[in-house]
Amino acid sequence: MNKKNITAIDPRGYDAILQQAVAEIRVGRNLVARQINSGVSSVYWSLGKLLFDKQLVEGYGTGVVNQLSLDLKKEFPDMGLSPRNLWNMKRFYERYYQEDTKLLQAVAVLPWGHNLLLLDKVQQPHAVAFYANETITKGWSRNLLLNAIKMDTYSHAKGQLKSNNFKETLPAAHADYADEVCKSAYNLGFLGITEPIKELELENRLIAKIRSFILELGRGFSFIGNQYRLEYNDKEYFVDMLFFHRGLRSLVAIELKIGSFRAEYAGKMNLYLSLLDRLEKGENENQSIGIILCADKDHLDVEIALQDINKPIGVAEYQLLLPKDELQTLVLNEIKAIEEDEEQK
């Protein structure tokens, strides 16, 4: 294309756009060296803002964007600067420039392919934030993100009440963070359990697949041990599973129950947390947190059981099996992802 064919803007105006676009890419590339995904998003955000500010729209601005793509690809041949992608950058900026900081921070660190998927498939800002944070904490591939969107994971998660007493037992900022970290339900479908099992067997299977379990818990958890022994006043106590969370700077005790939640579980966990704070907590660490992981819970039962407990405790459900159609979709997407990876090698 010859620059004479650009009719949407005068040549001097176009040269200003090109020079500004080149400058934005150079600045953003310095960020890429430090943090690849957020650096790329920063470049794309800036280019999208540039096209938005110049009020370029498809039709009126097509000639400008096509020529901009050609000129930028000469300068930066290894970047995705096709006309289509430039318009996607403008869509990216238009979608998020008026949203709150938390949402912007979440999408900024996602790979560009994940952001394009969210642009195409998810409209509600709260849903975008949910999928972005789940992708970050669980390391979802693009195919796994697509699978989660198709299964409407956001709506299922939104309908689950969180059962904990963190606001009553922790400082405000710490309580909010703990509430984000500790979910109301966990999917343990990776264990391959097809029939009822005992609590010890459930624990042993989790230990055997501890990496998968930590990924399900979320980012920041480090496994310390199972049946962790605590001794006090000539008595022994054993915590089913003990973790440390780097962000919370807290020990996290998990108790596994194969049935429904019972009030006495809260009292037992309260004792374990008191012992952990007395015997194990480091000088610069925050108080220990407990999670009771059970097959089923009633929110009101949990609320009354925790109301006079002075230690931070959350109660969560687990799902051992994925529904057949969801499992089939997940497997097919994973097979497709593996095949695509093989083709690219």
Describe the structure.
By secondary structure, this protein is α/β, with parallel strands linked by helices. The protein folds into three domains: 1-98, no CATH class; 100-159, no CATH class; 161-319, Trna Endonuclease, Chain: A, domain 1 (3-Layer(aba) Sandwich), CATH 3.40.1350. It has helices at 11-32, 36-53, 62-75, 83-96, 101-108, 112-121, 125-138, 142-150, 153-158, 166-169, 172-181, 199-208, 210-217, 263-279, 299-306, 324-344, and strands spanning 163-164, 185-187, 221-232, 235-245, 250-260, 289-296, 313-319. Strands 1, 2, 3, 4, 5, 6 and 7 form a seven-stranded mixed β-sheet that branches. Helix 14 (263-279) links the parallel strand 5 (250-260) and strand 6. Helix 1 runs antiparallel to helix 2, helix 1 (11-32) packs across helix 3 and helix 6 packs parallel to helix 8. The model is unreliable at 30-39 (pLDDT under 50).
